[in-house]
Amino acid sequence: MDPYSKRKKELPERPPESTRPSPFPDEVLELVLGLLKSNKDRSSVSLVCKDWYNAESWSRTHVFIGNCYSVSPEIVARRFPKIRSVTLKGKPRFSDFNLVPRNWGADIQSWLVVFASKYPFLEELRLKRMTVTDESLEFLALNFPNFKALSLLSCDGFSTDGLAAIATHCKNLTELDIQENGIDDKSGNWLGCLPENFSSLEVLNFANLNSDVNFDALERLVSRCKSLKVLKVNKNISLEQLQRLLVCTPQLTELGTGSISQELTERQYTELENTFKHCKNLDTLSGLWEVMTPYLPVLYPACTNLTFLNLSYAALQGLELANLLRHCPQLRRLWVLDTVEDKGLEAVGSNCPLLEELRVFPADPFDEEIVHGVTEAGFVAVSYGCRRLHYVLYFCRQMTNAAVATIVQNCPNFTHFRLCIMNPGQPDYMTNEPMDEAFGAVVKTCSKLQRLSVSGLLTDLTFEYVGRYAKNLETLSVAFAGTSDWGMQCVLGGCTKLRKLEIRDCPFGNAALLSGLEKYESMRSLWMSSCNVTMNGCRLLAREMPRLNVEVMKEEGSDDSQADKVYVYRSVAGPRRDAPPSVLTLSVFTEGTSPKCRRWGCNPYFCDMDG
Amino acid sequence: MSIPQEHDYIGLSESSPMERISDKLSSSSSSSSALSTEENSNKNKTSSLNLKETELRLGLPGSQSPERKPLPGVSLFGKDIDTNTNGYSLSPSKNLVSGAKRGFSDAIDASSGKWVFSVNNGSDADLNTGAVLFSPRGDNGNTQKSSVSKKEVVGVITQSSKPVQEKGSQVSGANENNNAPAAKAQVVGWPPIRSFRKNTMASNLTKINEDAEGKSGFGCLYVKVSMDGAPYLRKVDLKTYSNYVELSSALEKMFSCFTIGQCGSHGFPGRDGLSETCLKDLLHGSEYVLTYEDKDGDWMLVGDVPWEMFTDSCRRLRIMKGSEAIGLAPRAMEKCKNRN
């Protein structure tokens, strides 16, 4: 029974130049277009003609909104009447690093209110960097009877009480995925709120919650939910408890363990080993909190088909990693801590020929005294062994231009190259030169590069290279780099596909900011903090480009004329009205008005709904 | 070679080798002259601070960390750590969040070029407000920018902004000469790691350190190893070695990059066979002596007691210049004499 069966043609008549009637009835067209999953394809389809636009609108069930302020919930609901799944991203990415004031916005509530009336049959909500209150979670739980999947990543504003509300009221819940949020973790009681006969869960991830959950309730839950595919528990679940869980869930494809730190008897060890032997369906393994490495081998039998191994919270040494990797022949994605050091990365190079993604996180980013960590040597070693590598996130304390040149020579297919030399503005430690040539090599060699994060001592030359060569670049993150406005101008002028630009602590000023006047409407957003941009520059930008929202966040006690933090983004919803006092919205328009859109609804080139 | 100075240690014997090491370090830098004036003025304060070299930096308000200078061939963070001739130093107690957890009370002594930050077990709110100063790199003499970023970083500095500006300009000046001090404050949002991860790792590390400190945890025994003139320490797990020879060769490998710098050849640790020979000479010859601090706080020469007894009582290791090992053992003295 299609709840949206009432059809409404709200459009004006077909324009005169289209005389040929559509060969398909609307229903057929919708059915066909309904098979399209990619948002990019759907966007293209919607531009063909009015009929196709409508058919696409009616057949779309999932909408992705990369910037919650680029559009309003009303506009979304007007264009897409049949949405069942929404993905929303809110705050600028630098809010993850505490650069955005806490009450900045991106509150989900206003969306939920509209959805409750327009999408009462909403099933899935995936939020990233949104503010979510317990009240909102309760509202969600009570107003959407079909609600199935909730995923919260890097959100804030809620507590485990909100989770309890979801657990209590969402009878059809299949997915509860709580990751790396600023959550007020009061207790693990929320788990017990799931009804005793509840059995539809397929995904349960509470790895990042620290409170104890009732293990018996968890065990019963897990044995009832025969479709459970993803289970990621928190560090309070011991090895022995994990074993009991795994016995009930041989069908798991993704497992997040608890702590590997309990002392085991030999019998327990053998039992565990046997249990893991039966986890042949696992493709993802994570967790390993507080790992006591003598017990790692117990996991080996489960690793045969692993494609993703997330050790980013397990402080392993190189040798331990090497031993583990020998049992993971199918590995495609690996996340580790830099405790494995270069030795560990050499083992990666030797044991993981299929590796496509590597992320190396710093175990101790702030402690200078004990310098563990990885160097350029480790990265180079990986590049020799893993020729398919295309995604890297690498935190290190030293790097050289020559090493990076070698790396990209070995792996020219990088799509995501995120290098963080942790000491800001540090040059090539062997030659003492800037790291310009390193990133020059990256952009010259890796023609498919979509995302780049630069670091180290960089002059404008880096950005000349980027502008000249990185023609597929979509996201660029810059910190403590550059020499003058020219650097940023090169990027804005040269990177035709640029969508997200985030800059902090660089000597780019108004000239640079304003050189992108024409560009920002084709981008999702621009962030500039601790640069040389002034209020006047921002006002000018706002005046010239009415379809951009220009927001300035002022620091306490800073100079009136300085624009400490600037966030610029395109929007068809006009300047937002929920900004806190510390956020100045610069706009040509008076309160209440908003710029006219070119078509009713929105223009996909302006509307960020398709990412 | 500097004359060892005696200090009034709190609870330590006079003329502890550590202070000599501190002197050694401070004088080995090319910019020592400017430094030593400052050093001298800080001498009294640094009496208890030289200990800091060997400890985790959980400094108390009012303490300053001693300078640590890299070797010419090696830069800790790839830049020459220079001292600011202006002896500007923050008075930590004024500048820090009063509610800061203990990890945060280290002052940033700009002139010392010292990174001082210790593991914080708290929330990211602490990280924000505990941040003091950061001087952005880049050869822009842009005071304003520096001060802006500082202001962003400094939540609770109650002083007037003038000193901040001063620092900014002086640091920028230093930047222009590519000699920015490595004065590392906690910069807001840097390195770019999510709060959840930061907090988790911080609490994990405290756990690991607690476990490993002295007492053997589950099969590992990490002790710090420092080497005279090296810009940073290492940690080794004594349990992975079964005798002195293994330990010695592991340490040689670990610290070869520093001694090669001293040898005069530039970089390329380990790959050049010549360099390794050079290193062995250094360690086995008379240049360096391996010492350790035992449970009682005494510094002993490594190798005198049976291995098991050594691992039981060893708290930390120090690779000392032979000339500094006066008084430790006659053997060490002999080595020096033979060399000379």
TrEMBL record, chain B:
Signal peptide: none annotated. Residues 160-173 have a biased composition (Polar residues). Residues 220-322 form the PB1 domain. Its main location: nucleus. Pfam families: AUX_IAA. It comes from the Eukaryota. It is found in: Nucleus. Keywords: Auxin signaling pathway, Nucleus, Repressor, Transcription, Transcription regulation. InterPro entries: AUX/IAA_dom, AUX_IAA, PB1-like. Residues 26-51 have a biased composition (Low complexity). Residues 1-75, 160-180 are annotated as: Disordered. Homodimers and heterodimers. Aux/IAA proteins are short-lived transcriptional factors that function as repressors of early auxin response genes at low auxin concentrations. Repression is thought to result from the interaction with auxin response factors (ARFs), proteins that bind to the auxin-responsive promoter element (AuxRE). Formation of heterodimers with ARF proteins may alter their ability to modulate early auxin response genes expression. Belongs to the Aux/IAA family. This is Auxin-responsive protein. The lineage of its organism: Eukaryota, Viridiplantae, Streptophyta, Embryophyta, Tracheophyta.
